[in-house]
Amino acid sequence: MAWNQAEISDGRRYFDFAGDDGFRLAVAGAANPHSLVRSPAHWRLDVTGADGPQRFRQALLDYTDRSLAILKRTKAQGVIVWDLEGEQFPHKTSFIGDPRMLGRLAPEMAAVADEFFGRLRRAGLKVGLTIRPQELIFDEQGQPHQSIAFATQKVLLEKIDYARTRWGATLFYVDSTGGIRWPDEVWQLRWLAEQRPDILLIPEHHYLPYWSFSAPYVALRQGDSEVTAKWARKLFPGSFQALDISDAAHDWAKIAVARSRGDILLFRAWCWSPECELLEGFAHDQR
Predict the structure, then answer these.
(1) For residue 144, what is the enclosing H or E element?
(2) CA max distance for the chain
(3) Nearest Cα residue to 82 out of 127, 37, 146
(4) Closest by Cα among 108, 113, 109 to 127
(5) Any idea what the CATH number is for the domain that residue 75 is in?
């Protein structure tokens, strides 16, 4: 996914986002669990053979350049890579959310990740990726599953700091959060935001208190969250949400209102879409 930052003033984080739906909020939607490829990580590319890694590198960087053209037209300001480690495992394990495991799970991506993120940052974009409050565990048969991390703060901080140090990542979509089902989680995530005030957390599942320190993820195509957002703005002035507008260009009026309030607008960054047309129009209106 990608993001457009309208302004930063009075020390308040004020974003206007844009993202994608595979690698979401990102230029790197190269993985697809349903694609027919010969690659353990399920890239949309065949990385087998002696020259596989080189072909992967070239295809990924070509893909990045095509996406950058879209991001430039839409005035995007950031990108989140939804599935950096690939999608070789079935749902609900598919999004790994642990950049520390990149070398083990997707060595072909590990070899080019620095160059990939560097290209995005040199284009003036902030970068980020998916993390999870779980840990990927392999059983005795080698089958993976996501296990709840009881030391949530420690696990997430290690994932965040790894990505911050290696790639300068500051945007983190937090997949598979517990929301109201895990009452202690909100305080642990708030602690993370306080410890790393330069990052933006985008939790998948949430309730009102999350608005006080993060940009909760909301998909417009799945329904309108206006009631919750209205209460959040009353309780936490200056709060905003990360609104995924993918497949929702027909709700342009709601999108325009969200943008005017300072919400982040998330859209798919790897292909031109009606949402891109809408954002390009917004960009022209600002001239």
Answers:
(1) strand 144-148
(2) 59
(3) 127
(4) 113
(5) 3.20.20
Residues 79, 168: Cα–Cα separation, whole Å: 12
Provide the pLDDT for residue 44.
62
Tokens of 98: 């642990």
What's the pLDDT at 101? 95
pLDDT of residue 183: 86
Mode of pairing for the β-strands spanning 242-244 and 171-174: unpaired
Q: Residue 15: what pLDDT?
A: 29
Q: Which two tokens stand for residue 25?
A: 């909020």
pLDDT, position 39: 43
What pLDDT is recorded for position 6?
Answer: 36
- At 13, the amino acid letter reads R
Burial of 131 (0-12, 13-18, 19+ CB in 10 A): buried
86, two tokens: 């690939």
Q: Is residue 169 a contact partner of residue 128, using CB atoms and an 8 Å limit?
A: yes
Q: Cβ(41)–Cβ(96) under 8 Å?
A: no
Count the neighbouring beta carbons within 10 Å of the beta carbon of residue 38.
11
Q: Which long-range contacts (CB under 8 A, 24 or more apart) does 136-143 make?
A: 136/93, 136/96, 136/98, 136/101
pLDDT under 50: residue ranges of the chain: 4-39
User: What's the pLDDT at 178?
Assistant: 92
Contact, 190 vs 169, CB < 8 A? no
Listed in sequence order, the residues at least 6 apart from 233 whose beta carbon sits closer than 8 Å to its beta carbon are: 211, 239, 261
Provide the number of structural domains found in the chain: 1
| CA dist., res. 63 & res. 56, Å (int) | 10
- Two tokens, residue 7: 């302004």
Picking from 200, 205, 97, 79, the residue whose alpha carbon sits closest to that of residue 144 is 97
Domain boundaries, position 214 = 2-285
Q: Which residue(s) pair with 174 in the sheet? A: 131, 203
Residue 190's pLDDT is 95
Identify the pLDDT of residue 42: 55
